[in-house]
Structures are given as C-alpha cells and as structure tokens.
Amino acid sequence: MKDLMVIIRLMMIEKKDILLSILFGFIAGITAVGLFAASGYLISKAALTPPFYTLIVITSTVKLLGVTKAIARYAERYFSHRATFTILSNLRVTFFKKLEPLAPQIFHKYRSGDLLSRIVGDVETLQNFFLRVFYPPIVLALVFLSTILFTAFFSFYIALVLLAGLILTGLVIPALFAYRQMKIDSQVRFQRGTLSTEATEFLHGFRDLKIYQKLNEKEQKLIQSSDAYIREQKTENINKLYSESVNSFVTLFISWLVLALGSYLVIEGQLEGILLAMLVMISLTVFEDAAPMAAFPIHYQDSKRAQKRLSGVVEDSNETNLSEHEMETLQANHAIPIVMDDVSFTFQDELRPALKNIHLTIAPGTKTAIVGPSGSGKSTLMQLLLKMSIKDHGNILIDHLPVEQIEQESIWRNTNVVLQENHFFFGTIRDNLLLVKDNLTDTDMAQALEKVGLSSFSLDDAVYEKGENLSGGEKQRLAITRVLLKDANLWLLDEPTSSVDALTEQMIYKHMFEQAKNDTLILISHRLTNLDQMDQIIVMDQGSIIESGTFEKLMQQKGYLYEMKQIEQDML
C-alpha cells in the first residue's frame, strides 16, 4: 500500500472530478435499483387492475428513473475518465521529474527496453487504479447500504440476505481472489519488460546479428520471451474470469434466495405479495455494481506491481537529501577550479573499483590532459565531475563547492562538454546546433562549422536519427561545434578528436585553445599529441593516478608517459 500512496496523493489533486464521479456513480446505481424496483412493482400492481392514474404515475416514475440513470451514467463516465487521464498526466510528469536527473546513470542499472516498458506500460496500467480499484468499492457501498435501508422497511430478513450478499461479493470473494493472485504471483509486468528489452536489442543489433549469423538464435530468444509473456497473460486472465464467474454465481444465488425467502414470507403473511416482484428485481439489479469487484484483485495487484516497478527506478538515486532551494549554483563569469580529494567510485554490481583514491587539483584557467590506456578510469572521472555518477567516498569541489551541493543543471549549463558518444536528433544541422541556445544566428553557426572543418555543410543539411548519415569524424566535429558556440568557462573534453585526421585535429585544437585561453580545460585522450601545450598532465592506469606533472617533467622522469610517447613515435 505504501507504493500506491504516491498515486493516491496525485489523485487528490483531482478531488473535484473524483467526488463528481462518486456522486454520479451513486446516482446511476441507485436510480438503476429504483428503476427495476418500480418496474417490478408496476407489473404486480397492473395485475390487480388499479385506477388508471396509478399506472400513469408509476409508468412516469419508471421513465424518469430511466432518463436519470442514463444521464448519471454518462456523467460518471465523463468525470471518472477525465480524472483518470489527468491523474495519468500528473503521474507521467512526476515520474519524469524524478527520472530526468538520473538519466545519465540510469542506463547503468536498467536496459533501455525495460525502461521503455516501465515508462509506457506500467504507467498505462495505473489508469485502472482509479477506474477499477479506488472508487467502485465506494459507489458499491453507498448503493448497497441505501438499498438495504430501503428494503428493511418492507422485510428485515431480505435486507439481511442482501447484506450477506454485499459482504460476500464486495469483501470475501475479492479478498480470496486477491490472496490467490498473490499466490499465483503473476509476472506479466516483468515478462513484458523482458519482451520489450529483447525486441529493442533485436532491432538495434539487427545489422551485427546478420553479419555474424546469429539472427536465428536471437529470433528464438525473442519468441521465447513472447511465449512467456503470453503464458503469464493467460494465467492472469483465467484467474480474472474465474473471479467473475464465482461472483456472478453468488449474485444469482442471492437473488434465488431472495425469491425463496420472499415467497415463504408471503405465504406466512409477513410480506405483501405485491412487493415480491419488486424485491426480486432489486436483488437482481443491486448486484450490477458488485460486478466490477470481481476484477478488483487483478487490477489491485497490477496497480501495486506497476507502481512498485516505477518507484524502483527512481528511489535509489543516491542523490543528496538537500532540497532544491538549498542547492548552490555555479557562477559563469570566471574560470572554475576543481579539487578531488581521496575520491573512489565503483559501478553498481561491479567488484573492481573504477576509481581508487584519486587526489587531483586543477587551478582555475589551467589546461589539464588526462591520459592513459582504455579502462583506466578517465571517462569515469569526468562523469563524477558532471554529476552523472555519484562518488562512493571522498570529496569533490567545483569552484570551492562540494559537488553534492551544486545543482546538476548548473554544472551542465556552465560546462562545455564533448563525450565519446554524442547524440544527434533527427532534423537538420541547424536544429542540432540550436540545442546550444536559441538566439544563435546563421552566421555564428556557419563560422563555428568552418573552425572544425565542416564548411562544406549547409545548415539545412539533413541529420538522420542518431546521426546515422554522419561519419564518426563528422559527429565529433559537430559536437565540438556545439561547445564552440556555447562558450562556457569549464571545458570537459572526452576523446573529442579520436576519429579526426591529424591535420584537422591540429586546426580544431588551435581554435579551441584560443577560445579557452582564460578558461579551465580538461582533455581526456588516448593520443599523446598537443600535450606540450598543457599546464598539467595526469597519467591514469587501473583507476589510479600513477604520474602527474608538466610534459617536460614527465618526459624527464622517463616513466609511463615517456614509454608511451616512445612507442607512439616508433609507430609513426
């Protein structure tokens, strides 16, 4: 129930529509009972040939109740569905607000297909919470209690039978099937996430699967996931149909019991015979509102499981407990110093630490290169600076502020970032450059493209999804164009020119260093070129800093950097 409290709090925002749904649901239910009760009474009364005006009054009452029922049922559906869609909208917004700060590291924990299944499928599942779980029991209780009170005026014993029927169909049977549902422990949501994950991987990796002749194996795995999902759906639906069947049997049995008991009371002279048809019709009608309770256990368990899966994505965020108004904001009008003191970090479910006891000081306005073999922790260090991941222990200060106290958006807003993999959206070159800021002119963008050797590109040239029509080097140069246009005071560059030829690389670095002359710049690279332009070089291996100093100093030490430089020269 703890997980569902989130949904209930969001529901209370729409309390007006909720109250109207309950009100019109009650009116529709009670007028339906009144309609059939009046119809039963009319049939019995007509058999006794009453005065004509009596039949007119009763007939008019039946018609009025019929019209009222139709209007009330429409209003109930209107307000309940409006409330549901608004609640879903609020849920999506709330979930996205919690998910958005975790986006950089969330893929370390969840596969993309599973995330898609949770964001789309589980949110959609929660639409049944209000429509099938929350307000139907309230309407049922109100209609039933009103009907029982009305029936008690004519026969106390029949009112007790209806009360027993309410307890059975509204409480006992749903509780039993809720317990049975827990015993079944349906994994529909889990299997749907697995199927979504397998389908996503199949589509993304189709080309590689085709090349390595593994397409059939992946297809079989996808079919197995689909079959497992279908089996779980079948189990769930069987339980649902079984619940509905038992509920229907009990309601019909109660109606037969009312008929039998009513007949006995008529024979004993304790009930007027003219009222028997009315009471039987009441028993047949009042249980219509009990029908949704048959599906109550399924929808309750589905909603609970769906909300638990959604909460599981955002609850372990490892974020600081500070509220937004307590967070600090980086200032963008000066070069930014960085200090890392005894910082360590390990990825989730990994035994090997990615970073071990890092001590690093970067003075404002200096240029620092971080080099080392692949897997040495260079990119992970940059993720910690960008607050994409949270350190295990140690201290990280950016502009003399602990990174935990700095707004994540503030760090990104004041940083020029080029990652190893940069995303490009479907559209044009102009669209992808305008991500930097909206007030860029075509002249600004064209000049920036020229600085990275993309002067042949037009701003109206198409860019496919994920930049599929761009080469690796073109993607990197387009990403560098963005940071040149952004012009922040902190530069974090992760292998920005690994796919660019040497001549173009020299031209790009010339423009970047000119623009970042008074800024703090950190360059992560496998290549050992342009290191003589750096104020400081950090050499990493297996998550630790093994050398640091100026280029001249490290070359004189003839350590790791010296050996790597010699190997590079020999290869050239």
UniProtKB/TrEMBL annotation:
Coiled coil stretches, renumbered: none
Keyword tags: ATP-binding, Membrane, Nucleotide-binding, Transmembrane, Transmembrane helix
Annotated GO biological process: cell redox homeostasis; glutathione transmembrane transport
Keyword Membrane (UniProt): yes
Localization of this protein: Cell membrane
InterPro entries attached to this UniProt entry: AAA+_ATPase, ABC1_TM_dom, ABC1_TM_sf, ABC_CydC/D, ABC_transporter-like_ATP-bd, P-loop_NTPase, Type_1_exporter
Membrane topology field: Multi-pass membrane protein
Signal peptide: none
Pfam families referenced in this protein's UniProt entry, alphabetically: ABC_membrane, ABC_tran
PROSITE patterns: ABC_TM1F, ABC_TRANSPORTER_2
Single GO molecular function: ABC-type oligopeptide transporter activity
ABC transporter domain sequence ranges: 338-567
PANTHER family: ATP-BINDING CASSETTE SUB-FAMILY B MEMBER 10, MITOCHONDRIAL, ATP-DEPENDENT PERMEASE MDL1, MITOCHONDRIAL
Name this protein carries in UniProt: ABC transporter ATP-binding protein
Native source species: Lentibacillus amyloliquefaciens
